[in-house]
Task: structure prediction
Amino acid sequence: MRRLRRNSAIRDLAAQTRLSAEELVMPYFVIEGKNKREPIASMPGISRLSIDNLVDDVREIKKLGIKAVLLFGASRRKDDRGTESYRRDGVLQKAAAAIKRNAEDVVIVTDVCMCGYTSHGHCGIVKTKKPVTSNQKPEKHIDNEETVKILAKIAISHAEAGADFVAPSAMMDGQVGAMREALDKNGFGNTGIFAYSAKYASHFYGPFRDALGSSPKFGDRKSYQMDYRNSDEALCEIGADIEEGADIVMVKPALAYLDVIARAKAVFNTPLAAFNVSGEYAMVKAYCEKPETRNQKPEKNLVLEILTSIKRAGADLIITYHAKDAAKWLKNL
Ligand code: PBG
Ligand code: ZN
Result:
């Protein structure tokens, strides 16, 4: 076996998995204002950007060979129905339009969810069920049908702004079908759906929620996001999304879910994305910044190993906060 490992030229020749900037998607957090760059404490190297700075950064990553961005809007005006989420002049809508104007052929993917816009931090409309008997407590739940209607409305506002793909991440049943129907009815037949299909109720989303201030104020997301003990269910979710019209499907997070990625790749032919999420990014950064390991300069090799492994498992696309750095390293910059 060692003949194929003898030197780097032979290893490169025999390598089965190759990573390139084209398959990486760079996520961005967008804020209102001018020339703003707010570092996110739990995600060293990542900042919330105002639209002008966002456009500059997108132009830069485009030169590095990255084809697509995933946008998240950071809203300051939150209410219990997340009404800011579908405003025409919302920060995410304005950001998509600005990228369309200034960095034309970059593929724009927009996150469609309510948790960044609701005062309670949940991904949908909260309802309280009145107790039937006096010893029952009022029970709160997330209303699937009402939420799906709003998600469809958000999707249209993103498509109008210029999104190439809308990315439903609320994990409501039927969200992809409802969005596909609404987009088609409103003349957006060319706008694609990049579905967060198998999205787990994960503890790796902490830094992201810190970035958007989107942690649920009560309870958790386990009644809509998937249970990490399951993987058959991931195939059901992905299959349903494809049936409902998803163009690209996703497994999220990535590193602790490589088995799910591999199973999905073996069953479906729809392009498969993996989301290398905020907590996975933060773990790498913490390792690289530790005084005991810092002088080994591990980040480049560590990140390329991680991203290549996600690809080896079966992902066609990888959404990662490392995208810009990785694209530079892949170009030997
Ligand atoms: C919103 C959403 C989340 C992420 C992407 N879209 C967080 C959540 O469900 O709380 C996580 C991304 C990351 O951690 O990088 N529903
Ligand atoms: Zn959400």
Summary: Residues 144-161 form the longest helix (18 residues). Residues 113, 115, 123, 169-170 surround zinc ion (ligand 2) (CB under 6 Å).
